[in-house]
Amino acid sequence: MSKEAIADRIKPLAKVYVAGEQQADAGNAGSSGPRSGEDVYGSFCVNCHGSGVLGAPKKGSEEAWKPRLAQGIDTLLTHAWNGYNAMPPKGTCGDCSKDEIKSAIEFMTKGL
Ligand code: HEC
């Protein structure tokens, strides 16, 4: 059994464990490394950007994202980081780094 297969099997458990760990270890930089855009999206952004709640641009919707992408990734990242109208700061991922938020934006707009 490969490491990946094991990691995959215990994923939901591991996530809960890691979140608790980080709090217990606060200040110890005990992070397990940056999460992928897909992970961040799947844990946080999907709650609004999956269905378009509150007018959130839906993942993969060219119509919704095109005018926003035209502002440039830096502006999108600033808006996602600071909040923008009904878009909450960091998209509710309070412990996300800027890189993680950026990856999540890239995941939502992949191929557009
Ligand atoms: C509580 C709902 C909610 C969650 C959770 C959420 N968003 Fe949003 N998001 C919105 C809404 C609503 C808008 C549209 C805001 C507007 O244009 O007025 C938006 C817009 C955006 C935009 C476009 C900003 C612009 O300049 O046009 C980006 C980028 C974005 N969200 C990224 C994210 C990321 C990344 C996450 C997850 C880490 C996330 N959002 C989570 C509601 C949400």
Automatic annotation (TrEMBL):
The UniProt record lists the keyword Nucleotide-binding: no
Annotated Pfam families: Cytochrome_CBB3 (PF13442)
Keywords, alphabetical: Electron transport, Heme, Iron, Metal-binding, Transport
Signal peptide as annotated in the record: none
One GO MF term: heme binding
Record-annotated Cytochrome c domain positions: 34-108
Name of the protein in its database record: Cytochrome c5 family protein
